[in-house]
Design a protein that fits this description.
The chain contains 16 helices and two strands. The protein is mainly α and about 270 residues long. The protein folds into two domains: about 150 residues, Serine Threonine Protein Phosphatase 5, Tetratricopeptide repeat, CATH 1.25.40; about 120 residues, no CATH class. A hairpin with an 8-residue loop joins strand 1 and strand 2. Helix 3 packs antiparallel against helix 4 and helix 5 runs antiparallel to helix 6. The chain starts with a helix and ends with a helix. This is Ankyrin.
């Protein structure tokens, strides 16, 4: 009779083979309780997410194990943050978006926060940034921000991380978070219901939409220090608070924009106040 280690090793090989039929036959023939294979060094769901390309195998494991929740962390020693992995975070990090969709459908939360210590509250963006820039690219950012990530979690520090790791990272944030599909649907409802908006009402709606992401003085200062003028222009165009820079700072920036012949930035600055 195979030991628990034998069963685990055989299941690992079957998962890696991406053959659901063989996996099911082995489980049924040997009466394997998949959840019992977990130990302090092995989590069957996270292993399957990271080591197979079959959505059906992951779904089978979820159905067989009957997890109380998919929002949990597992301590390990491989690529992770402070030794911890989360099923959905692993799927997104590996760009296995079909599996990520399945996990979300089964209850995994894109806004799950990894509370390791009292002073650390790690969301998926923090997590991916810290495990390495290779897990923080355009496709991953698009996935996160198009799946209802709570943008109120974006701190000044996190905004800086975006522009330092990926040049178009900030554009992705604003494109998928401000004036998104929900906003467009809302505006279409006004149009279809023939509800005219005054200029002041429209201005209020737009300002309220832009306020979803907080852009403070520190964001501008860091972009200025790094001479990231395209980033500053992005901030200008999406900033709901027109008091983050004083007149002197705007004038100083205007001088630099003129010096570098950056017409678009000059235009954004002149429209700022």
């Amino acid at each position: 009779m195979p030991t628990i280690n034998d069963l685990r090793n055989n299941i690992i090989d079957l998962i890696k083979s991406n053959n659901l039929t063989n996996l099911i036959n082995y489980v049924e023939t040997n009466c394997v309780f998949l959840l019992a294979l977990n130990n302090i060094e092995f989590d069957i769901l996270i292993f399957s997410i990271e080591n197979c390309d079959s959505n059906d195998i992951v779904q089978y494991i979820i159905n067989q194990c009957q997890f109380e929740t998919l929002n949990y962390s597992f301590y390990c020693q491989s690529i992770c943050y402070r030794g911890y992995k989360v099923p959905l975070f692993s799927a997104v990090a590996k760009k296995k978006f079909g599996i990520a969709d399945l996990l979300i459908e089964k209850g995994a939360d894109i806004n799950y926060r990894l509370n390791i210590l009292n002073w650390e509250d790690i969301n998926i963006v923090n997590y991916l940034y810290h495990i390495g820039s290779v897990y923080f690219d355009k496709a991953i950012l698009k996935y996160i921000f198009s799946h209802n990530f709570n943008i109120s979690c974006l701190s000044t520090n996190l905004m800086s991380q975006f522009k330092n790791i990926y040049d178009n990272g900030l554009d992705i944030i604003f494109n998928y978070s401000i004036f998104d599909n929900l906003f467009i649907i809302k505006m279409l409802e006004y149009y279809n219901n023939k509800k005219p908006l005054s200029n002041s009402q429209l201005k209020f709606i737009i300002m309220n939409e832009k306020s979803k992401i907080k852009i403070d003085r520190q964001c501008y200062k860091e972009a200025l220090n790094l001479k990231k003028y395209d980033t500053i222009m992005t901030f200008f165009n999406n900033d709901s608070n027109h008091h983050n820079l004083n007149s002197y700072e705007c004038y100083e920036l205007l001088e630099k924009a003129v010096y570098f012949n950056n017409y678009n930035l000059v235009k954004s600055i002149l429209n700022y106040k």
